Amino acid sequence: MAIMRLGRVEVRCPNWEKSIDYYKRVIGLIETAREEDRVYLKAWDEHDHHSVILKKADSAGLEHLAFKCEFSSDLDLYEQKLNNYGIDTERVPAGTRIAEGEAVRFTLPTGQIVELYNQVEVVGNGLALVNPDPWPDGLLGMHPTRLDHLLISGEDVDGAIKIFTDIFGFHVSEQLVAGEKNDQTIAKWLFKTNTAHDIAIIKGPQNKLHHFAFWLDEWVELRNAADIMAKNDVMIDAGPTRHGVTRGTTIYFFDPSGNRNEVFCGGYITYPDSPTITWTEDTIGKAVFYFERELNERFITVVS
Amino acid sequence: MAIMRLGRVEVRCPNWEKSIDYYKRVIGLIETAREEDRVYLKAWDEHDHHSVILKKADSAGLEHLAFKCEFSSDLDLYEQKLNNYGIDTERVPAGTRIAEGEAVRFTLPTGQIVELYNQVEVVGNGLALVNPDPWPDGLLGMHPTRLDHLLISGEDVDGAIKIFTDIFGFHVSEQLVAGEKNDQTIAKWLFKTNTAHDIAIIKGPQNKLHHFAFWLDEWVELRNAADIMAKNDVMIDAGPTRHGVTRGTTIYFFDPSGNRNEVFCGGYITYPDSPTITWTEDTIGKAVFYFERELNERFITVVS
Amino acid sequence: MAIMRLGRVEVRCPNWEKSIDYYKRVIGLIETAREEDRVYLKAWDEHDHHSVILKKADSAGLEHLAFKCEFSSDLDLYEQKLNNYGIDTERVPAGTRIAEGEAVRFTLPTGQIVELYNQVEVVGNGLALVNPDPWPDGLLGMHPTRLDHLLISGEDVDGAIKIFTDIFGFHVSEQLVAGEKNDQTIAKWLFKTNTAHDIAIIKGPQNKLHHFAFWLDEWVELRNAADIMAKNDVMIDAGPTRHGVTRGTTIYFFDPSGNRNEVFCGGYITYPDSPTITWTEDTIGKAVFYFERELNERFITVVS
Amino acid sequence: MAIMRLGRVEVRCPNWEKSIDYYKRVIGLIETAREEDRVYLKAWDEHDHHSVILKKADSAGLEHLAFKCEFSSDLDLYEQKLNNYGIDTERVPAGTRIAEGEAVRFTLPTGQIVELYNQVEVVGNGLALVNPDPWPDGLLGMHPTRLDHLLISGEDVDGAIKIFTDIFGFHVSEQLVAGEKNDQTIAKWLFKTNTAHDIAIIKGPQNKLHHFAFWLDEWVELRNAADIMAKNDVMIDAGPTRHGVTRGTTIYFFDPSGNRNEVFCGGYITYPDSPTITWTEDTIGKAVFYFERELNERFITVVS
Questions:
Q1: Are residues D111 and D179 in the same domain?
Q2: Which of C134, C260, D91, D133 has fewest C-beta within 10 Å?
Q3: Does ipTM exceed 0.95?
């Protein structure tokens, strides 16, 4: 019984046509299906049908995020655990969205809708399963290999984190704390895989998305991504730079609808016995932007 | 209950003084303890007391390999499972080697001694746990971040693999097969973490070590590692090149005692639902050395 | 008869002890000589005795810059040409500074003192001249390979540029222009070697230094340099980013005395027949910082 | 009066159609013109009409190599110098090949035909001359930025080198020597630009081409190039590896007609006062392949 990974995000896009073009041609995701108000996309090295769903909407933001579980039976088990914990759940029937099986849905104390699922159509990564080459031809734009993580905000950060650690077995890789005794949570970074974070939660406006991130393999791909942003008039929020938190390297930027994206690269490997690293509020600049050592106003205030 | 990672290898070193110098100054591991016939070493970004033990011996080879489990109670559980499976186990008392707690020991059908443990002294990675920098000063040589995986050989490959998949929950990321129906195993690559492999097993001489590998973060560090090998007269077996299997990039080379080392970088992320990739025997060159597309004789025949 | 390269800069350092430590340990230059009020430094891959002289002083700024000529006789020839052009010259006797031969000295219309020289002691780059390794051990900090270029400001930019093109045979690789007809020079980038620029001149305060730059071979070394800046509390002005002008990648930062430094990497190769690239004033942000597409106030106003 | 660069090579291709496809789609050169028995190609960042001419022929090899001079008048001056030196020249009329002006032609003591020219049509590098982006979209394959250098063989190496140094003002960056007194030339590497070599000459079969090389900016592009070779069944001769000579990193491989190509990256900057580095015959392995420290038989014996 286990969550395997952040499986998908569904993102609201008021600037509809431009956003579709952007995620396909500039980010370089691959379209796998389309409905009137949804476009289904995957990063090239993902095997599942989609990891990003664009949703036609009046305002930007996160429609839902979902974790893929190892077994079908995990849905029952997690549902029971959530209910025991006092959290209501509902079942999202198979076929509600294209290529997806049934899901268990609940709401985080920070306001975001989360789904747990196991069934989704597998379409492969474009490479043969026998004697494959290392990468396919014809990739576009930044072509990240996969969806990596997201950062969400809300009021009850500790409450949300407790669900991830107590029910889903996530661990805290890093935390940013405030207060004279450093005992007030500003943000925590959580991992279930061996990466530095699968999800992070920060104190802030309820039910908001700060950013979701795609994985790039190397620092040099960040330069390439930044070139592509400049060539395509994509607004860069910060970077290329390094995070103090996770040690990863990064660029933050905005999609045409106003959702913040990140391309993220690097960071250390984690295990259940990895120590939690703490950043104190006075070092918040370095924690977030290690090179600049100060936050920009936009980074703190703009969420979608 | 879970194995977290390949925790350590103990390697026999007939060329004793030169091997110690090599692992410390050329590879860039950090010595944490020493006995008359053992030197304990860790890669810089590992938190545990050691991941490599050099053992003074008359011939090269693998003394034992060990996996770190998440919980102390895992030792009892795995011991029971192994015994039920018909595999004898013994307990290695705490303190048998420096900084180590109790371990469960058994022998693979391919001949290697494996230990399972949970307790080991934690010494940290040289960085603060509060507001750390991304890397410490004063690193030497290639300074890999950590031990990554190993490749062992033996006669009953399928038998050994079955233990990893059935008892320990490993998955097969890739396999190299022979025979008209591609149903004979030459080698399989197994993962428990989200990396492309934690251990691999190849048909060959019983109870032998083909190589153990250290992790480097980037392709450019392989060039640096190769420079360091050339400057220090380290014999390179192959590389820098890419593997077909795992897509990782690599250099194989020998320690002064004749044990093959690897520096490995890259490869895709794995999950329990990752498909198994198959390489057929006619493509073995590309499977192992994607650029050269042929094996060198030494790579196939030399083990320790 | 030819200028071979920007041979040295002499920089005033009010923050004397900290600046010496910074250039040696953080930048990673090598000290080759010291007087009471001067420290002589070289980048590791330079063969001449020094390329940077730190001068104890009450305020930051550029004491002089100097070009190395191919032949001793070039001094006479250039002196004649300068005098014919109406520019006064004087001879700086050999031995005025350590390891230096005679120089011809004159003042640019933008106010900076320039010297031309051929003689300087050669100390080598730390590698053997027979069967050398590609790099020496023991380098510190960012360890750039060499001094690359500098950017100076003054009022009569066109007058200064004319001297470089007409007398010294420099070519203009790029220019930033203003005015309705794009006929007013804001800045020009000039090359004599095959690099994208050896010197650049920008309209601004008379006799000021905007920055001088060290060469790094690869984008990944910029990340390393930024890490070192953060670890050593060096103030970063901008970057890591890319320039529109020259396509080079860059970080700007300040020495402890307030002189702006750059580490620069990349850019195209130039030849005498390379076309001049023009940037218009409305695109000045992209010209200077291609990723951000806007200048920071500090970058425009702070000179030393 | 000066040679600016190696301007073009004309290469014989018996495997005609496959060679055209290879140079365009695999190497990633851009076709600018075609005749019945010639295809004209340029690397993307070159401004001139072509740098590589493929010539339909019965056997592989070098038809001619050519240097671009700064001024038209250089042709007269160099012709005079060559004649004074006892070397016959002839004039190749403008229009003999597409887009080319007049050239002066002569034969090296090592047998190769060399042309000197100034006039050639300029077609640009695909980027605007006003406010350009750093690279154009739509590049294919390895897409090197430019032709870099070539290595030719013949009997009278010293005679050929003397022409480059005495008449054309080239300098020797490195030399490989034999004999008890290290006074017999095996090979010399010559530069006129600030790169580590523009041409190299090695003792061997008369009038042969060992390889010609394209420039890549970074080590990571060599990995990409090797991937492309493997995906397209291009035979790799050696690499990715580093040269001892020039410190550059490299892959050698063969075009479908049997001409050896190289992608080359890095190496130090040179100036007229750069010291000459010497490699002794016992270190020839390290001189050529720094990582492997031994030559492969094919590399020594196969020329075209």
A1: no
A2: D91
A3: yes
Are C20 and C151 in a shared domain? no
Both tokens assigned to B95: 């303190």
Of chain A residues 24-83, which have a CB less than 8 A from chain D?
Answer: none
Residue at D182 is within a domain: yes
Query: What are residue C188's DSSP bridge partners?
Result: C175, C201
Specify whether C113 is located in the same domain as C151. no
- In this structure, are strands B38-42 and B52-56 parallel, antiparallel, or unpaired? antiparallel
Among D180, D179, D151, D183, which Cα is nearest to D252's? D151
Number of domains in chain A: 2
B138: left (phi over 0), alpha (psi -120 to 50) or beta: left
**B242: chain D residues, CB-CB within 8 Å:** 223, 226-227, 230
DSSP per-residue letters across D247-281:
S-EEEEEE-TTS-EEEEEE------TTPPPEEEEG
Distance CA C205, CA B185 (A): 75
Tell me: do B103 and B154 sit in the same domain. Answer: no
Instruction: List the subunits that have 3+ CB pairs under 8 angstroms with A.
Output: B, C, D
Helix (H, G, I), strand (E, B) or coil at A304: coil
Contact A135 D218 (CB under 8 A): no
Domain region containing D23: 3-117
* Same domain assignment for residues D153 and D296: yes
Q: What is the CATH number of the domain that holds D36?
A: 3.10.180.10
B197 with B91, same domain: the answer is: no
Phi and psi torsions of D247, nearest 5°: 65, 0
End position of a domain, from candidates B63, B96, B117: B117
Pairwise CA distance, residues C192 & C82, whole Å: 18
Alpha-carbon distance values, D180 to B172, C155, D184, D284 (Å):
58, 62, 9, 15
**Per residue of chain D (304 residues), what is the pLDDT tens digit?**
699 999 999 999 999 999 999 999 999 999 999 999 999 999 999 999 999 999 999 999 999 999 999 999 999 999 999 999 999 999 999 999 999 999 999 999 999 999 999 999 999 999 999 999 999 999 999 999 999 999 999 999 999 999 999 999 999 999 999 999 999 999 999 999 999 999 999 999 999 999 999 999 999 999 999 999 999 999 999 999 999 999 999 999 999 999 999 999 999 999 999 999 999 999 999 999 999 999 888 888 889 9
Claim to verify: residue B95 and residue B162 sit in the same structural domain = no
CB contacts, 8 Å: A192 with chain B: none
Query: Which residues, including other chains, have CB under 8 Å from residue C216's CB and lie 6 or more apart?
Result: C142, C144, C145, C222, C225, C263, C264, C265
DSSP state of C300: H
User: What are the residues facing C116 on neighbouring strands?
Assistant: C67, C104
Does D294 contact B at CB distance below 8 Å?
no
- Please give the span between the terminal C-alpha atoms of chain B, in angstroms, as a whole number: 33
Q: Are B199 and B150 in contact (CB under 8 A)?
A: yes
Q: Which chains touch C (3 or more CB pairs under 8 A)?
A: A, B, D
Q: Give the residue ranges of DSSP H helices in chain D.
A: 16-21, 73-84, 157-162, 219-231, 284-288, 297-301
D128 and chain A: CB distance < 8 Å anywhere? Answer: no
Identify whether residues D93 and D187 lie together within a single domain.
Answer: no
Q: Tokens representing D63? A: 């038809």
Which token pair is A97?
């969205």
Residues D7 and D149: their CA atoms lie apart, in Å, by 9
Structural domain contains residue B126: no
Name C154's bridge partners: C203
**Other residues' Cβ atoms within 10 Å of the Cβ of residue B287:** 26
Q: Is D223 on the interface with A (CB under 8 A)?
A: no
Instruction: Decide if A197 is inside a domain.
Output: yes
In the sheet that holds C38-42, the strands lie side by side as C30-34, C38-42, C52-56, C3-13, C61-69, C113-117, C103-107, C90-92
Within a domain: residue A128?
Answer: no
Looking at residue C282, what DSSP letter applies? G
